[in-house]
Design brief:
Blueprint lengths: L14 H11 L1 E3 L5 E3 L3 E2 L5 E6 L5 E5 H9 L8 E4 L12 E4 L1 H10 L16 H11 L5 H8 L3 H8 L5 H12 L1
Antiparallel strand pairs: 1-2, 3-4, 4-5, 6-7
Helix pairs in contact: 4-7, 5-6
Length: 180
């Protein structure tokens, strides 16, 4: 059986301080200019977090980019997010971090073309060529049900494509611009 060493934390020091020490001890600078934290754990969505504890005091955790911003730049006002200029989620280099609202972050993602829309979305069943063909078929006498069967999607999906609430960018390019 492996020898598991129990880490004990000084109760006179706030757990946030222990988190910060663990974070700072794990920083490694990459050639790209990004910093990663080797004492952090990867999360499902690509970010990393430092966590400590278990037992009576619970688990304390914080994402490394938020810890870095707070440590090197200061507090994060309510309603603000810590965003990455480098677009590398595990990065914690304070020079790569900036504050923004949720909408700022969404705009930054769209501007850099990092938004998974259309056929780039992991659940997409249709290609852009399929949707353009659906627009053309929508102008014929075919029923939504018939178009849906042809592409293996629901009737309601055909309706949302044809009215522009789904595949909006393509709709604006191929349907709205055709009417202008």
């Amino acid at each position: 059986m492996p020898n598991l060493r129990l880490v004990r934390y000084d109760d006179s020091v706030p757990m946030e301080q222990h988190l910060l020490r663990k974070f700072l001890a794990g920083i490694r600078k990459l050639e790209s200019g990004c910093w990663v934290c080797d004492t952090a754990f990867p999360m499902d969505h690509g970010y990393s977090e430092v966590k400590i504890g278990r037992g009576k005091r619970g688990v304390f955790r914080q994402t490394v980019h938020v810890m870095s911003y707070q440590h090197y730049k200061g507090p994060i006002p309510d309603g603000m997010l810590v965003c990455h200029s480098c677009d590398f989620r595990p990065c914690c280099n304070p020079d790569h971090l900036f504050l923004g609202t949720y909408l700022d972050n969404q705009g930054d993602m769209a501007e850099k073309d990092r938004v998974a829309f259309g056929e780039r979305h992991y659940r997409a069943k249709l290609t852009e060529a399929d949707v353009i063909l659906i627009y053309q078929l929508g102008k014929t006498k075919l029923l939504h049900r018939e178009i849906a069967e042809r592409f293996g999607v629901s009737r309601s999906r055909i309706g949302t494509i044809l009215n522009g609430t789904d595949w909006t960018r393509l709709y604006e390019q191929h349907v709205v611009s055709a009417h202008v």
